[in-house]
Write a structure and sequence with these properties.
Layout: E1 3-8, E2 17-22, H1 26-34, E3 42-46, E4 49-57, E5 62-66
Antiparallel strand pairs: 1-2, 1-3, 3-4, 4-5
Length: 78
């Protein structure tokens, strides 16, 4: 099973929080990642590549998922 990472940073001065988990595929990883999303932007990664950006809205309970150009995770090789 692929290893996925969800990263988020509460503020510019705060350390980056990372949650790692295994999932069968990207869709399953997205379902798992949604459980950890808040109003702070979070990024879902797999194999050093960014899959999407997630942003929750606590007042409406909605979730925004932005898929875009895949970026390379800092500290990994492209």
């Amino acid at each position: 099973m692929p290893l996925f990472q969800l990263t988020r940073q509460q503020s510019p001065d705060a350390p980056t929080e990372t949650i790692q988990f295994d999932a069968a595929d990207e869709e399953t990883a997205l379902i798992i990642a949604k459980r950890h999303v808040s109003s702070v932007p979070a990024y879902l990664w797999s194999e050093g590549r960014r899959i999407c950006r997630l942003l929750g809205n606590s007042s409406s309970g909605s979730l925004t998922v932005e898929r875009g150009r895949r970026k390379v995770m800092p500290g990994t090789m492209a």
